[in-house]
Design brief:
alpha+beta; 4 strands; about 150 residues
Length: about 150
């Protein structure tokens, strides 16, 4: 039994020794809070991040057409002539659900251009009762080929 206890004791000694050494090293690296405070170093200004310039919409009519579509949806008179046949068909299918939703957003308070993505224009549209993000894209003939909206993040 004594050899077994002696072996167990010898196994524990190497494990305990490094822990104590690490604790002493870590404690030695901490500043002594009872000494005078360390002198403050001058703040180094962070390099200026390259802020991408907000470009103009890919289609100069994008904001005006978007405002017209929103107004039409709120009034129940969406102008399908500004849309491609494919998009007009998809919007007609969903009009019963989306028109009351958009009307419930209340009056438009602001339309802010956010940027471009894959040829489409992104806008942040703030209503009296909701903040939303819209994407509008045009085809080569100038008709609205893409129209999406979602709650603002």
């Amino acid at each position: 039994m004594k050899p077994l206890l002696l072996a167990a004791t010898l196994l524990l000694i190497p494990v305990a020794a490094p822990t104590v050494a690490c604790a002493q090293v870590a404690a030695g690296a901490l500043p002594n809070s009872f000494d005078a405070p360390a002198p403050r170093r001058a703040a180094v200004p962070a390099p200026a991040a390259a802020v991408p310039a907000v470009a103009t919409p890919a289609n100069p009519r994008a904001e005006a057409v978007l405002r017209d579509i929103i107004a039409g949806a709120q009034a129940g008179t969406i102008d399908y002539a500004v849309m491609t046949e494919d998009l007009a068909g998809k919007v007609r299918e969903q009009e019963a659900a989306i028109a009351p939703l958009i009307a419930g957003f209340g009056p438009v308070q602001a339309v802010d251009f956010v940027g471009n993505q894959n040829g489409a224009d992104l806008f942040a549209v703030t209503f009296a009762n909701a903040a939303t993000q819209w994407v509008i894209g045009f085809n080569e003939a100038g008709k609205v080929a893409a129209l999406l909206f979602r709650p603002a993040e």
